[in-house]
Amino acid sequence: MSSTAETTVAPEAAVSGSSATMTMPQLLDGLARTHSSSVAMQEKRYGIWQPTTWEQYRQRVRDFAHGLAEMGVQRGEIIAVLGDNRPEWLIAELAAQSLGASVVGIYPTSIGSELEHIISSANSRIVVAEDQEQVDKLLTLVEDHPEVGVERVIYYDPHGLEQYTEPLLLEFTTVEDRGVAWGNDHPGWLDEQVGAGSPSDTAVICTTSGTTSKPKLAELSHANLLSMAENLAAADPISNRDRYVSLLPFAWIGEQMLAVACGLAFGVTISFPEAASTQKSDMREIGPDFMFAPPRIWESMLTEVQVRIDESGPVKRSLFGWGYDVSDRVAALQTQGKKPGAWLKLLNLFANAVATRPVREQLGLTRLKRCYTGGAPLGPDVFRFFHAIGVNLKQIYGQTEITGIAVVHRNDAVKFETVGVPIESTEIDFGGNSEIMLRSPSVFKGYYQNAKATSEAITEEGWLHTGDAGYLDDDGQLVVIDRLKDVRTAPDGSLFSNAFIENKLKFSPYIEEAVVFVDDAPASPETGEASRGLSAIITLDPTTSGAWAEHERLSFTTYADLAAKPEVYHLIATEIATANADLSEGIRVGRFVLLHKQFDPDDDEITRTRKVRRNVVADRYAPVIEALANEEDSVTITSAVTYQDGSVVERPIPLRIFDLNTFTIPTGAKQRKVWSGRP
After folding, report:
1. Percent of the chain, pLDDT > 70?
2. Does the keyword ATP-binding apply (predicted)?
3. Taking the model in full, what pTM does it have?
C-alpha cells in the first residue's frame, strides 16, 4: 500500500532528544532532576490551589510503587483505576509503570456489567478507586461476582469510608506509608526496575468507544504515547511554560494523549479543578495555554453563550451582534492564511474589547494559544463561532488504536468541514470503499488477549483499518464521511452519512441529540419505487429549550411534559426545516419525533464519551422507527419507571410524529444568529 500524504516536521518544533526512546517513569525522573522545584501539577481543594513539584511528584510515585511492590505487583500486571481526575490517578499510573506494570482506566460513571467486563478482561486483582461511591460499586461487584478476582481496593478519598471494615480495602496514603518502609528495606531496587523499562512496554490500556459492541482493551506502549506527543508538538509546539487543565477522564485516550504523554514529554503543568461545578471559574484562574474537549463541551459552551445573550438587554445584544460580525470576517480571513486590512484590524480591536473578549473570559479561554476537539464531528457552524470570538479551535482525527491523534488542522489552514492533515511520521491511504488507512509509530500494540481482533485491525505492513470512510480534498486535507457501515448513497449518487445530517440538526441550540434513519420501505405496488426518506428521533437540550419555553410563558413540569408540548414541536420543526434548506432534496429529514427522555449512558443508549449507540437506539425504539417509516401520526411505547421504594411500573407513553413534508417555515420568520437561540 502506498502513501498518498505524508507530512514533514516544522523547523520550529524540533525536540532536543527523543522522549519516545524512554518510558514515562524515566521522563519523570529526568524532570525531577532538571526542574525539581517547578510545579508539575496542582489540585484545588477547599478553594485553594495545592501545588506539587516534580520532585514531590516523583517521590509520591516512588512511595506508591514500593507499596505496590510490597503487595506483590509484578511486571506485566494490569492495575485498574476508577474515578475522577485527581493527582492520585497519575501517581498510581506512573507507579505501576515504574514496576513494568500498566493501568487500565475505567470511566467514573461506569456501573455493573461495564465494571465486570473491564476488570475481568484485564485480570486486574488490584483496583485503585476514588471515593465511597466507587468503592461501593466495587464491593457490590466483588460480592456478586467473586470470580472477577479483585483482591485489593485502594481508595484515595476517605470521606465516608471511615467505618468500612472490609478486609480488601486500603487507603492510598497507607499504601504510600508501607511503601516508604519497604523502599528503605530495598534500596536501589526501584531504580533498577525503572531503568529496565522499555519504550515497547505496555504503558496504558484504553477501552475502545464500544458503540457497536462491548469495548475492547487497546494496549498502548510508552513509545506509542510519546511519539504521538513529539509529532503533535511538531505541528503545535509545547513547552514547560504551558499550562493544561485536566477536565476529561483519564480513562479516555484524549486525556492520556495530552495531560499524561505531552505533560511528561514537555514538562507541562497539569491543573485539576475542585469540582465539575467550579470548572469554568477554575479555568479562568488558571488560564490554560491549550486544551482538549469533545464536541459536547464546545456545544455546551455555545449553548451557555446563547442563553446569556438571549437574557441580556437589546443594547448588549446589538453590540455583541455587531462585534461578532466584525470578528467573524477577520476569522474567515485568518483561517485561510490571509491578513485583514488596516481598517478591519482597527474595527476588530474594538470588537474584541466590547464583544468577543468578555465572552472568552466568561468561558475561561482568554489565554488559549490553541485548543482541540475530537472523538466525534463538530458542526461547522459551532467551529466558526469559536474562531469568530478569537479561539484557535482545531479538529483532530484519530482513535484509541492510533493513540488518539493522526490528523490535525494547521494554523491558518482551518477548514471547518475537514479534520486537517497528518501529523509528522503519519501516513494516510485509502482502502476499499474509501476506508481511511493510517500508519505511524503510534499505532497500538494490539487488543489485550484478542489476537483475532488485532489481526483484523492492523495489516502485516502496519496499516491501521480505521473503519471510517473519507477522502482528501483539493488542498490535501482529510474529509471524514462517517463509519463505513453508516455511509449511504444519495439519490443523486453522492455519498452521505447519517452523522453529517445529525450534526446539521444538532447545531440548533434546542436539540441535544438527533439520530437519523433511512426509511427503506418496500416498493410501492403502483409506482414500483421504494421510499428513501429520512426520519429522526430527537432529544431536547433541556437548558435552552426550557429557557425558550419560559420566555414564551409556556408552563411545564418535567422534561417529558416539555417535549410533548405542541409549541415545542413547532419550534423543533422550524429548526429542522432550516437545516433541511442546506441539504440536497434527497437527504432531507421528512418526519421526526421528540423522545420523552434524554439518552442515558446508564441505559446504554450513548457511550461514556457521549457517542450514540445507534444499534441500541434502533433496537429499543424499533416501534418508533417503524411508525416514522409507515407515515403514522403517533406511536405509543412502554417505559419502565422505578420508584424510590424499588418498585417498577410500566407506563404507556404516547409520542406524536411530526410530518415536515407539509410544513413551511412561517412567513416573515427571521433567520436565527449562530450566537442566539432566538430569531
Report:
1. 93
2. no
3. 0.84
